[in-house]
Write a structure and sequence with these properties.
This protein is mostly helical. Helix content is about 75%, strand content about 0%.
Length: about 350
């Protein structure tokens, strides 16, 4: 159960970043979609994608994004590398911009300084026993975000809107693919020493939690809220507001770590120095974050989600070709079970 709880915490915390915790991401993808339909669709989509990555990681002994792409995608590995680098930069910039906007809103000032503060805090995770600290952070974030979502849901009357089933399911596929593919490095890492049963439980529980929170938030969010929708809902309730600020910022930090992880790993291999790699990644991310959180979410997220769907379908197809799930072992294997040692 300890392994399952740890994995669920990482999966949930990797998804609920600035876009989700602020509510902007849900509004962009779903608008006025029928919340119960989104709930069912996301359970299926998230479960399938989490399982695909976990099973592929275990069967090919690939516990980081680079190794998994090399083993699974073969000649398309280069294309995936380019995509992952671009997405990691977009997500890093988005989280930094989101962290900056949240703190600027709290202190009623306008400055890029808070983006630097956010980058510095996450950079520390990479420099000082990042895995252990990040896991603890993910656990705390998951508990807090679930509690905050329930409080929001019970604090305001919910009104379910209607939309076409096709439109909603299309948005579900794009939304789940976008979030899971962007967090593939952290998901692969959790596959170490994981059994098939643990993988199934972790994937399904994570999917149910994410789907439940998405449906609850979607049913109460107001599309007219321009900056931080979830915090604007409770701006006249001091306790909920400041608790929300803490929750949103924790979600930003945990997701920023998960999305920057594969990028830092790649840069570190090039420069042979982790500190310099972290400096480069967050330096470039901060520069891009000045484009603005709102612009990044509205323009980049939908565009990236289209490519994420293609990668998700590729992973699922590869999963279907594996006849037997291999127990974790030393060495590297391709999707057909051939040794790459």
């Amino acid at each position: 159960m300890k392994k399952v709880f740890s994995s669920v915490s990482v999966f949930v915390a990797s998804v609920v970043g600035a876009g989700f915790a602020t509510g902007k991401e849900l509004i962009v993808f779903f608008g006025k979609s029928f919340a119960p339909l989104v709930f069912v669709g996301l359970i299926v989509a998230f479960s399938l994608l989490f399982l695909a990555i976990l099973f592929l990681s275990i069967s090919t002994n690939s516990f980081d994004a680079k190794t998994l792409s090399s083993n699974i995608l073969g000649k398309l590995d280069f294309c995936y590398d380019v995509f992952l680098v671009a997405v990691s930069l977009v997500m890093t910039a988005s989280m930094l911009a989101g962290g900056n906007d949240v703190l600027c809103m709290c202190f009623n000032i306008s400055t890029p300084f808070f983006g630097i503060v956010t980058a510095f805090l996450v950079a520390l995770l990479f420099c000082f026993k990042s895995q252990k600290i990040a896991t603890i952070l993910c656990k705390v974030t998951t508990v807090f975000i679930v509690f905050f979502t329930i409080l929001l849901f019970t604090a305001k009357r919910q009104t379910f809107a209607t939309s076409s089933i096709f439109s909603t399911m299309n948005s579900v596929g794009m939304y789940a693919s976008f979030n899971v593919v962007c967090s593939i490095g952290a998901i692969c890492n959790q596959a170490k020493d994981m059994t098939k049963k643990q993988a199934v439980i972790s994937a399904v529980v994570s999917a149910v939690i994410l789907a439940s929170m998405s449906a609850m938030l979607l049913s109460i969010l107001d599309e007219s809220s321009l900056l931080i929708p979830t915090l604007q809902l409770v701006k006249h309730q001091p306790f909920l507001y400041w608790f929300g600020v803490v929750v949103v910022f924790l979600a930003i930090v945990s997701t920023l770590w998960a999305n920057a992880l594969p990028l830092v790993e790649r840069v570190e291999k090039k420069v042979q120095n982790k500190s310099i790699a972290v400096l480069i990644v967050f330096g470039v991310g901060w520069l891009l974050s000045n484009v603005g959180f709102d612009n990044i979410v509205k323009v980049c997220y939908p565009a990236v989600s289209v490519l994420s769907v293609a990668i998700s379908l590729t992973l699922i197809c590869k999963l279907l070709t594996i006849k037997k799930l291999r127990k974790p072992s030393k060495g590297r294997w391709d999707a057909k079970g051939k040794s790459l040692n």
